[in-house]
UniProtKB/TrEMBL annotation:
GO BP terms, alphabetized: translation
One cellular component (GO) term of this entry: ribosome
Family classification: Belongs to the universal ribosomal protein uS3 family.
GO molecular function, one term: structural constituent of ribosome
InterPro entries: Ribosomal_uS3m_fun
Entry keywords, A to Z: Mitochondrion, Ribonucleoprotein, Ribosomal protein
Main location: mitochondrion
Cellular location(s): Mitochondrion
Protein name: Small ribosomal subunit protein uS3m
Pfam families recorded: VAR1
Keyword ATP-binding part of the UniProt annotation: no
Highest taxon of source: Eukaryota
Length: 332
């Protein structure tokens, strides 16, 4: 998993430092929440293949799209901006035409210095581009960052990661990447931002409240056990009919349990006090919604246990981390 996480945490330091006003330090970039969050991989082994399922929340892409929308996309729609672009085009074409005539004259007068004339032309063109498109420079940087983010999920770059994992398992590797709409749909992804924030800052209650507030809890609609049964011998004929297949989908989806998030709980414990203070470890907890299995507690349906004492309706994550002050843990 370290290899997979390192691949998705790759970043272009040069372009990201150009976007920011302040200097971008490597230490703060490593603990930044502007990244692709990944859950623990679910590995399924067969004789000749390993199937790796990953749940992904692409916060980096959402951040860049939001910045583009705020800064540039609204600006492009304004008629004033279109008029400015036309003016730049009109004036720029005149200047470039004059520069071209001057360069032709210099080449005719000084044929031995063609290389020097070409370098002077290139310097002129680069300066002209910088001055005319100074405000759009950041737009191109954001587009580059979005392209880098997109290529991480394409086969051309994933192929190198697959080859490295092949050497470890000595089998073929297949990735199944699932993009999550909300970060609280997976407990591992839900607790990772808190861990990264606490490494940089010690305001525990503030970050706990923010994360709990962002989790949208919905009421669970308890589905009754279906009274309809199907003859699976004639299932092919049943699915071919469009009207009957729609009814089948509705019945199957309505009988799926654990479709909605009914509750979340976050706990942070450890040396979360200020630096250079000889205080004890603290523990802070925030809770929202209900974590009970309503199908067993209210409806009385039997529920299986997974891996001993694990509950089927809960996702449980424990992250241990360290900082300059000391060690701490996050449960979610």
């Amino acid at each position: 998993m370290k290899l997979i996480k390192a691949y998705f945490n790759l970043y272009h330091l040069q372009i990201e430092s150009l976007i920011r006003k302040e200097r971008l330090r490597r230490r703060f970039r490593k603990i930044s929440t502007n990244r692709i969050f990944i859950s623990d991989g679910e590995f399924k082994h067969s004789n000749d293949k390993v199937n790796i399922t990953l749940y992904v929340y692409n916060k980096q892409k959402l951040n860049y799209l939001l910045k583009l929308k705020k800064r540039f996309i609204r600006l492009f729609k304004k008629p004033k901006f279109a008029r400015k672009l036309r003016l730049i085009k009109k004036v720029g074409l005149k200047l470039l035409f004059k520069q071209k005539q001057k360069s032709i004259l210099l080449r005719n007068v000084l044929p031995k210095y063609n290389t020097e004339v070409n370098t002077a032309n290139n310097i002129y063109y680069t300066r002209f581009m910088k001055k005319s498109f100074s405000r759009l420079r950041f737009y191109m940087y954001y587009k580059q960052m979005l392209y880098i983010n997109k290529t991480k999920f394409e086969y051309t770059y994933l192929h190198a990661l697959i080859n490295l994992i092949k050497n470890i398992f000595k089998k073929n590797v297949e990735f199944n990447i699932i993009n999550l709409k909300y970060f609280y749909f997976n407990s591992k992804i839900f607790t990772q931002p808190l861990e990264l924030k606490l490494k940089k800052d010690r305001r525990v209650l503030k970050y706990l409240k923010v994360l709990i507030r962002k989790a949208k809890i919905k009421k669970i609609k308890l589905a009754e056990k279906t009274k309809k049964f199907f003859n699976f011998n004639n299932s092919d004929n049943f699915i071919q009919d469009n009207t009957k297949s729609k009814n089948l989908k509705k019945i199957l989806i309505s009988n799926i349990k654990y479709k909605r998030v009914s509750g979340v709980r976050l706990q942070a414990a450890g040396r979360l006090t200020r630096r250079f203070s000889a205080s004890r470890s603290i523990c802070r907890t925030k809770y929202k919604g209900n974590l009970e299995n309503v199908y067993s507690s209210i409806k009385g349906y039997p529920t299986p246990l997974l891996r001993g004492n694990d509950k089927a309706n809960l996702q449980y994550t424990v992250i241990n981390s360290t900082s300059r002050v000391g060690a701490f843990g996050v449960k979610g």
